[in-house]
Design a protein that fits this description.
Among the domains are: 2-66, no CATH class; 71-174, 2-Layer Sandwich (Tetrahydropterin Synthase, Chain A), CATH 3.30.479. The strands form 4 sheets. Strands 3-2-5 form a 3-stranded antiparallel β-sheet, with helices on one face. A 3-stranded antiparallel β-sheet has the order 6-7-8, covered by helices on one side. Strands 1-4 form a two-stranded antiparallel sheet. It is rod-shaped. It has helices at 2-28, 102-109, 113-130, 135-140, 142-158, 176-226, 229-239, and strands at 29-32, 36-42, 45-50, 53-56, 61-67, 71-80, 86-97, 162-173, 247-249, 258-260. A hairpin with a 2-residue loop joins β2 and β3. It contains 7 helices and 10 strands. α3 crosses α5 (142-158). It is an alpha+beta fold.
């Protein structure tokens, strides 16, 4: 009976020791994930940094992870253009933290460098870049604006060990009144382009018609100049059916008038006979 009690007591002690060892190991082992650097502090003071993998530490050490792979910062920036138009831009920025600067970065921003320095610098740089563009250019020249934004923030953030990989303007929201003005301008340009096209078409058509008339006139001139008496006679003979026209002579006073057959000469009324007045015969007897 006593042996049984002692055995159970030993088992309890072994379990307690094992549990204590597990706790100690949990407190003394730390895994740093891939793409991260852990800044190690002890009693609030930075004592070093550790890269990815399994590390042994004292229970008093604390690990603060900082991502050193490419990270994406997306935010909406409310800025104004050179022509004092408000513009809302959704901008995506790709950043990378220099692993050798993690301790300094943690010392300054306690692991909150994205909100502490990255976003404020981006806002100032984007605001400055947008202010040098008109609203129309900010929309039409996004690549140029993105390049200018990148140039404005690159040097400043590199001082903190943050490298800007790229800046992309994902979306742009413009004022509603300006949007309507742009749409009206597009409609006006379309109408003007259509009218210009119709005008050019009419001009081309008129020029073509004029050219045709010139060619016809030149052709008629060549034909007219080439006609001689012999050619005209030949043309007449080519069209003649070989029959001579028939004529008839009128009678009476119309003997001198020759008319083609099929036409009736106008009958001239004969002058009325003059009445012959004879003297009364004398009576033979006197």
């Amino acid at each position: 009976m006593r042996r049984s009690i002692n055995f159970n007591k030993n088992i309890g002690i072994a379990i307690a020791v094992a549990f204590f060892i597990v706790i100690i190991l949990a407190l003394c082992i730390r895994v740093v994930d891939t793409g991260e650097v852990a800044v190690v502090t002890r009693f609030g003071a930075i004592i070093g940094s550790q890269g990815e993998g399994l590390h042994l530490k004292t229970p008093l050490d604390e690990y603060h992870s900082i991502r050193v792979t490419q990270d994406q910062v997306e935010d909406i920036y409310y800025t104004a253009t050179r022509d004092t138009q408000s513009i809302d831009q959704t901008i995506v920025t790709q950043v990378i933290v220099d692993p050798t600067k993690c301790e300094e970065l943690y010392r300054k921003f306690k692991g909150n460098h994205i909100d502490g320095i990255v976003k404020p610098v981006l806002y100032d740089g984007f605001k400055s870049a947008t202010a040098s563009f008109t609203l129309e250019d900010a929309i039409a020249k996004r690549d140029e604006l993105s390049t200018k934004m990148l140039g404005n923030v690159k040097a400043t953030l590199e001082q903190y060990g943050i490298v800007i990989v790229s800046v992309e303007i994902k979306d742009v929201q413009i004022p509603e009144d300006y949007r309507r003005a742009v749409e009206e301008k597009k409609v006006a340009e379309q109408i003007r382009a259509k009218a210009e096209t119709e005008k050019q078409t009419a001009i081309i058509k008129a020029e073509q018609e004029l050219e045709v008339k010139k060619l016809e006139a030149e052709a008629n001139k060549v034909v007219t100049e080439s006609l001689t008496a012999e050619i005209l006679q030949k043309m007449y003979l080519d069209k003649w059916d070989g029959k001579l026209p028939l004529y008839m002579a009128g009678e009476g006073d119309s003997m001198g008038l020759m008319l083609p057959v099929g036409q009736q000469p106008q009958q001239q009324a004969a002058p009325p006979a003059q009445a012959r007045v004879s003297a009364p015969e004398e009576d033979e007897n006197g």
